[in-house]
Specification:
It is rod-shaped and about 85 Å long. The protein starts with a helix and ends in a 5-residue tail after the last helix. The protein is mainly alpha-helical.
C-alpha cells in the first residue's frame, strides 16, 4: 500500500511521460511490395502459366530495340 502511494506521489510531482518507447524500425524496409517485382515472378520461374506468358511478353518488349 505504501508503494502505491509513493508511486502516486511521484506521478503527481513529476507527471507521466507518454513519449515513444525507443527506436522503431520500418517493418517494410527492404521488402518487395508486390509479386511483380520479384525475380522469380518476372522470369516465370515459379510455375504459373500466367507469369510465364507475361515473362515472354516482357522479354519481347525488352528485345524490340535490338531488332532494328
Amino acid at each position: 500500500m505504501a508503494d502505491e502511494q509513493d508511486d502516486f506521489q511521484l506521478i503527481l510531482e513529476n507527471g507521466i511521460s507518454f513519449g515513444r518507447g525507443g527506436e522503431r524500425k520500418d517493418a517494410n524496409e527492404g521488402k518487395v511490395k508486390t509479386k511483380a517485382k520479384k525475380k522469380k515472378y518476372i522470369t516465370g520461374a515459379h510455375g504459373s502459366g500466367s507469369a510465364k506468358q507475361k515473362a515472354k511478353y516482357r522479354e519481347q518488349r525488352a528485345n524490340r530495340h535490338k531488332n532494328k
